């Protein structure tokens, strides 16, 4: 019996997968009347082939492809280290848990410590703080940028402040340079939530490289996708080492999967009350998790990273089309703006409906949705008013008046690369039909 050649079989399988994907996942141009989604996965046969190719190896956890993805992600993002996680929310959890690691000793964040954050945001930026006994200190956002000003953050500082952690809202950079300067002067941590911001820059520097830690999400809505997935970025080898342990069950060991003795003294450690020589691979210094990504996700991510520049270019084009097309409606709408030196990789196009508008935010949303144009509120609006956060320990600086306006009057529409120029034009036309009918 002649044995089948596995390499030849793999090549045949992948060729069929490529041909199948071209037919089954063919994209067609926008036609009038088609819906305009808020976001979505943008891919071709290369991602599908990469997914199946990794699956054929049946390495079900994180392995060599995940390591390659982390290395390439670190290079592309400008970070020294990247750790893949199973979601962006898990990346935020990992960032906070790492800063609460007892291995940081005097730098460790402890229950009761305060973390300054944006009241206008996504819940899983803040939830890990509360889950670790930290106290979020909410500051208001500007309308238009939807980020806090430097002055608002400075007003929130106290003797208990140990960190600043907030997102670049919809990919629009907050003043990370100034926040980093504050953090350095005060001896506190800065965490950039870049889940919506991969590919953006501020003053020529990549977002995610200003903070001690930064987080990314690869959910299908984001600048690249691995399906579910995310990552933690850092320049610090110390924080990378501690974060690796927290991500991987809380263990003290930093061996990669399949490695056995990276430290060269696997049976020579003395930690806490454990007997000397207890297996380092099963010694747990932190209360950790298992929030790694897996090979097939990483395989897709490697292909997507190669497309990131083009994806960002299209997002910027769609944003520019909307901004220019809606400029004559500014008497009814607060249109988005950025701080000086910002070059966002726009996640979406935020809008606040003015009191002078002939329709309310809710009426505008319903009218757009009736036309097949998907909308979303600006995440949690004022997080302090969300049921899961209202009674949790927190401190508020100011009256959060803008956050309340966002809660009742803001929305966003899509800029993702699946929206072509005709679709973006149709969104502009719909706004005019609703707000300024002929």
Word description of this protein:
The protein is of the alpha/beta class. It has helices at 6-24, 45-57, 64-77, 88-99, 123-131, 150-156, 176-186, 237-247, 295-325, 361-370, 387-390, 401-409, 421-435, and strands at 81-85, 114-118, 135-139, 161-167, 189-193, 201-202, 205-206, 213-217, 230-234, 333-334, 342-343, 348-353, 395-396, 410-414. Strands 1-9-8-5-4-2-3-13 form an 8-stranded mixed β-sheet, sandwiched between helices. It has a 3-stranded antiparallel β-sheet with strand order 7-6-11, with no helix packed on it. A 3-stranded antiparallel β-sheet has the order 10-12-14. It is flat. The N and C termini lie far apart (78 Å). The mean pLDDT is 96.
* Spatial arrangement of strands, main beta sheet: 1-9-8-5-4-2-3-13
Give the assembly state of these chains.
single chain
Helix-residue proportion: 25-40%
Low-pLDDT segments: none
Mean pLDDT: 96
Order of helices and strands: HHHEHEHEHEHEEEEEHHEEEHHEHEH
Report Rg: 23 Å
Count of helical segments? 13
Biggest pleated sheet: 8 strands, mixed
DSSP strand count: 14
Helix-strand makeup class: alpha/beta
User: End-to-end distance, in Å?
Assistant: 78 Å
Percent strand equals 5-15%
The gross shape turns out to be flat
Quickly describe the structure.
Helix content is 38%, strand content 13%. The protein is an alpha/beta fold and 438 residues long. The model has no long low-confidence stretch (mean pLDDT 96).
